[in-house]
Amino acid sequence: MNAIALAVFRSLLLLGFVFPAKLMAQVNPVMQWQQSNGFSKITIILSVLLLSALAAISIAWHMAQRRTLKNLTRQLSHETELRKKAESSQAMRENLLAGAVFAYTSEGIVITDANANIIDANTSFERLTGYSKEEALGRNPNFLQSGQHDESFYKKMWAQLKASGYWRGEIWNRRKSGALYPELLTINSIRDEHNRVTNYIAIFSDISQLKMTEKRLDKLAYFDQVTDLPNRIHLTDRLDQAILHSQINNLQLAIIFLDLDRFKSINESFGHAAGDELLRQISKRLKATLRAVDTVARISSDEFVMLIQHISSREEVQTIVNKLMATFEIPFNIENRPYNQTASIGISVYPDDGSNTSELLRSADSAMYLAKNEGRNTFRFFDKSDIRLTEKRIRLEIALQRAAKKNEFSLAYQPQYELSSKRIIGLEALIRWHNPALGDIPPSQFIPVAEQNGKIREVGRWVLETACQQGADWARKGIDFGRISVNISGIQLHENNFDELVKKVLVKTGLQPSCLELEVTESVVMNRIDAGISQLNRLRKLGVKIAIDDFGTGYSSLEYLKKLPIDKLKLDRSFVKDIPGDQDDLAISRAVISMGKALGLEVVAEGIETIEQNSTLLESGCAFGQGYWFSKPQSAEQIYEFIRKAKSAS
């Protein structure tokens, strides 16, 4: 607006002062007309001035518009120039970026002409293939072929590329060094405005690491990580195929289900690393025993399954099983020490014992549990009549889970005597289990189950607390029972805080430590000698006595026996039951008695049932014994009366 006003003012000056003569020359005829028509002179002059002002305003507005238009044109031209520069700069940046991507991307890039001859390649192509760009220019990429794909593979690739302009897939190529490698390859065709192919662009990456990862994942999915044996999934696949093959060809096959006896004890005794090493050694022996066409799989922590195809008879299978059992007769080497491990085996045969994978495995598993019930370290063929025994074991496991809470356990006590005087020197606490549905269940049936499912810790603690409480009660009543002896499993003994548990139980019940004796089997201590000795020393520091149970059935030597912090040896009943008639058993018994005396240990003979056995042992130097000839195990109430009457009689 200021610009327009200025322009008007300038126009007025120009019209009114700069050119008065010209103005008056134009106005005079008008004034003369107005005067002749009666207009005054002043009116005429005002009219002229008004017209001049309007003209000046019009001229000033047009001049301002022209200048504005000129400025806008200049500004637009400047902006257009800047835009062109920016577009040119952007295009330059995009070209630089594209060039950088081509040069520095980790994927190999090859550009060919329409005839598939290489016209360019990046540095990653050189790195991945080993060929320089100069070596590749002008050549067809087929010089990289590995020979792993047949002609039809490439025909299909080119057919898809020509039809859709695109192909993507995995391919094996060969480096300049001759090494083969897998790559993920993508090929695109480039066409001009006439839809004619002008170039092909191939982008590829080395997927060797990806393939290795896939292989590792497959191994994790189908193979056991500790032993490298097929796992349950892999075994199931193989067994499904083997059954189908046997069905079509009217053949037989066998499933051998092997379970390691008391395997948990090695993990508790030596640690899981030692357990894994034992599994690896067992795996090697099993594979070495079988044929290459047979399958050995590990399906759980302590269970192996073997698939034996093309068998002719059960006798042939039994021969194989005997060889497998024989591999366990040689001690394994664990931490540079011999370690004895046994196994129980169940066998099922197709098609007699099952028509599919699940039935055959279930049958072999059932037979294996029956082998364990027979004392372990043996084998059983599946028998349909044994199904009831398997079902009974399952019911037993379920009942065992709730037995302690339902107060179904009780303790019986068997006296231990001085043979010469018939004086009671102690009581062995023996667990009993009565279930309302299953009846009386002997320890030989449920203790192995408790050890397998880990329930032995709860059961063992209950026995320890109950026996100590009973001993403390008797002591407060003035009953001299000597010592109460409690059996301890290997799982309990090798728990790091077991000595703390014993201490807490003694404090809680008030039983004097000298009145408690803990019995551990020979094999439990010897399986982990250093840890066993350390634990036994901690227990003896509490004032507790230590006895080695079932002595003579293990493999301890005099050298190791001298190191054990123990107070008593218990001669196993298997050496007592046939004396004095069996001279071998008599010789062994006398040797154990002599060894105990030489080491300053008490020796207690187990299983004395006749006066002849008692007399022979006494003559051989054995001072103590227990067995049915003296007394059967009795309840706490019966023992209380038994000891009270014996004291009154003396």
UniProtKB/TrEMBL annotation:
<dbReference type="InterPro" id="IPR052155">
    <property type="entry name" value="Biofilm_reg_signaling"/>
</dbReference>
<dbReference type="Pfam" id="PF00563">
    <property type="entry name" value="EAL"/>
</dbReference>
<dbReference type="InterPro" id="IPR001610">
    <property type="entry name" value="PAC"/>
</dbReference>
<feature type="domain" description="PAC">
    <location>
        <begin position="167"/>
        <end position="219"/>
    </location>
</feature>
<feature type="domain" description="PAS">
    <location>
        <begin position="105"/>
        <end position="140"/>
    </location>
</feature>
<dbReference type="Pfam" id="PF13426">
    <property type="entry name" value="PAS_9"/>
</dbReference>
<dbReference type="InterPro" id="IPR000700">
    <property type="entry name" value="PAS-assoc_C"/>
</dbReference>
<dbReference type="InterPro" id="IPR035965">
    <property type="entry name" value="PAS-like_dom_sf"/>
</dbReference>
<keyword id="KW-1133">Transmembrane helix</keyword>
<dbReference type="InterPro" id="IPR029787">
    <property type="entry name" value="Nucleotide_cyclase"/>
</dbReference>
<feature type="domain" description="EAL">
    <location>
        <begin position="393"/>
        <end position="647"/>
    </location>
</feature>
<dbReference type="InterPro" id="IPR035919">
    <property type="entry name" value="EAL_sf"/>
</dbReference>
<keyword id="KW-0973">c-di-GMP</keyword>
<keyword id="KW-0812">Transmembrane</keyword>
<dbReference type="InterPro" id="IPR012226">
    <property type="entry name" value="Diguanyl_cyclase/Pdiesterase"/>
</dbReference>
<protein>
    <recommendedName>
        <fullName>cyclic-guanylate-specific phosphodiesterase</fullName>
        <ecNumber>3.1.4.52</ecNumber>
    </recommendedName>
</protein>
<keyword id="KW-0472">Membrane</keyword>
<dbReference type="InterPro" id="IPR000014">
    <property type="entry name" value="PAS"/>
</dbReference>
<feature type="transmembrane region" description="Helical">
    <location>
        <begin position="44"/>
        <end position="64"/>
    </location>
</feature>
<dbReference type="GO" id="GO:0071111">
    <property type="term" value="F:cyclic-guanylate-specific phosphodiesterase activity"/>
</dbReference>
<dbReference type="InterPro" id="IPR043128">
    <property type="entry name" value="Rev_trsase/Diguanyl_cyclase"/>
</dbReference>
<dbReference type="InterPro" id="IPR000160">
    <property type="entry name" value="GGDEF_dom"/>
</dbReference>
<feature type="domain" description="GGDEF">
    <location>
        <begin position="251"/>
        <end position="384"/>
    </location>
</feature>
<dbReference type="InterPro" id="IPR001633">
    <property type="entry name" value="EAL_dom"/>
</dbReference>
<dbReference type="Pfam" id="PF00990">
    <property type="entry name" value="GGDEF"/>
</dbReference>
